UniProtKB/TrEMBL annotation:
Keyword set, alphabetical order: Endoplasmic reticulum, Membrane, Transmembrane, Transmembrane helix
Signal peptide boundaries: none
Transmembrane segments: 144-166, 178-197
Name of the gene: TMEM199
Name of protein: Transmembrane protein 199 isoform X1
GO biological process terms, semicolon-separated: vacuolar proton-transporting V-type ATPase complex assembly
InterPro entries according to UniProt: ATPase_Vma12
Organism field: Camelus ferus (Wild bactrian camel)
Length: 207
């Protein structure tokens, strides 16, 4: 936080012999403090510095004195060319344990982000995982296809046989019994095909 002022040439000349502040008859203590501030290094505001620095409280005392005397010399005129001094902020050293923890968290977050990005990336090394995984997928696909066809045949055949045997109580002629069994088997077969097509569409949509 700023607490000092870099004195400009106007203020330095005003405090010097024959300056603008000489007729104002400044109190001896105030003048001594101002001259000391301008003539020496100000340890509080700038350690080791060479600029002529005046603290704000001395500027306030000077302003108050000029107002009490109803002086025609205004403070803003004396401060022409002066600047507020902002001391350099010395940053405290960072805690090594905190730095180590932050680095560890950064590495962990980077690994999690990498795993999230490469989650859906397929393996490119065919010697390790490409051949075996592809072969396993093909075997499972063929197995599922064979089971589906076998279930379809068994279901249609069972529907035909059941209808043929059950129709003997309704029809006496064999032609009628066979025709009824074919109709029922066809309906069951179409229903099975519809279910198979819907299942295949669902699997393709997930790919």
């Amino acid at each position: 936080m700023a607490s000092c002022l870099l004195a400009g040439e106007r203020l330095i000349r005003a405090l010097g012999p024959g300056g603008e502040l000489e007729p104002e008859q400044l109190p001896r203590k105030l003048r001594a403090e101002l001259e000391t501030a301008l003539g020496k290094k100000h340890k509080e505001c700038q350690p080791g510095g060479t600029e002529r620095l005046i603290s704000f409280h001395l500027i306030r005392d000077l302003h108050q004195y000029l107002r009490e005397r109803d002086s025609t010399l205004y403070l803003h005129e004396l401060l022409e060319g002066s600047e507020i001094y902002f001391p350099e902020v010395v940053k405290p050293p960072r805690n090594p344990e905190l730095v180590a923890r932050l680095e560890k968290i950064k590495i962990q977050l980077a690994n999690e982000e990498y795993e999230r990005i490469t989650r859906n990336v397929t393996c490119q090394d065919s010697r390790h995982c490409g051949t075996l995984s592809d072969l396993g997928k093909q075997v499972r696909s063929v197995k599922a296809l064979v089971i589906t066809i076998f279930n379809f045949i068994v279901t249609v055949a069972a529907a035909f046989v059941c209808t043929y045997l059950g129709s003997q109580y309704i029809f006496t002629e064999m032609t009628s019994r066979i025709l009824a069994a074919l109709i029922v088997a066809s309906v069951v077969g179409l229903a099975e095909l519809y279910v198979m097509v819907r299942a295949m569409e669902g699997e393709l949509g997930e790919l």
